[in-house]
Amino acid sequence: MSASLISLNVGQPRPLAYRDKHVSSGFRKSPVQAAEVLWLGETGLEGDAQADLKNHGGPDKAVCVYPLEHYPYWSARLDRSLEPGAFGENFSTERLLEPEVCVGDVYRVGGAVVQVSQPRQPCFKMAARHGVKELAWWVQKAGFTGFYFRCLEPGEVRVGSDIALQERSAAGVTVEEANRVMHHDKRDVAGIQCLLAVPELAANWRRTFEKRLVDAREDAPSRL
User: PROSITE patterns of this UniProt entry (predicted)?
Assistant: First the structure.
């Protein structure tokens, strides 16, 4: 069964309160009208932008995806109603969950073809947006992170588009597994090696795991 694009969300950078100051952020996303068609290119959606281009956006993070199945959990935990886009995602989806989606999977969405590049790594702006300082940690711990698409073939997308699997990653490393190694079992050398063997893994995650592998090898003699 194909997954579905339930809400298409975009936003421009604007001030976001954080501690005793304001930072510029594109985290706040608003749903577009159901009939609206947006162009998805290699660096993102028409009408969307990021303030921090070092840590957000770029070809490996053209689209932020978040499963709507997680919303009831967060609504209960945060004790508030949440609308699509509340987690800063561009695509609010159904039937695309972290234990099932693999890094490197290729999907067709409307006229575009996209590929899973990495899990989403929650940051302080998520906490700032909702006024809950622990929120990024809660998301990381729960594993309800969502993930990113890179755009392989630009095209038009709209609300209601099917998200149809075109090619399953041969490596079979799920977003859930990538989160485990990144956040919970950071010295799992076998897990790191499995992720580094995924050619489609985003460059920034690859650099992190390469460094961890070097550190693990350097530390090994001291533990003998």
Answer: MOSC
Token digits of residue 203: 């460059």
Integer Cα distance of 29 and 47 in angstroms: 10
Could you tell me the strand order of the sheet in which 155-158 lies?
Answer: 44-45, 37-41, 155-158
Which CATH number fits the domain that encloses residue 31? 2.40.33.20
Query: Which 3 state secondary structure label does DSSP give 4?
Result: strand
At position 29, the amino acid (one-letter code) is K
State how far the Cα of 141 lies from the Cα of 164, in Å rounded to an integer: 29
Q: Residue 45: its pLDDT value, please?
A: 97
Tally of domains within the chain: 1
Instruction: For residue 104, give the amino acid letter.
Output: G
Q: What does DSSP assign to residue 88? A: S
DSSP H helix total and E strand total for the chain: 6, 13
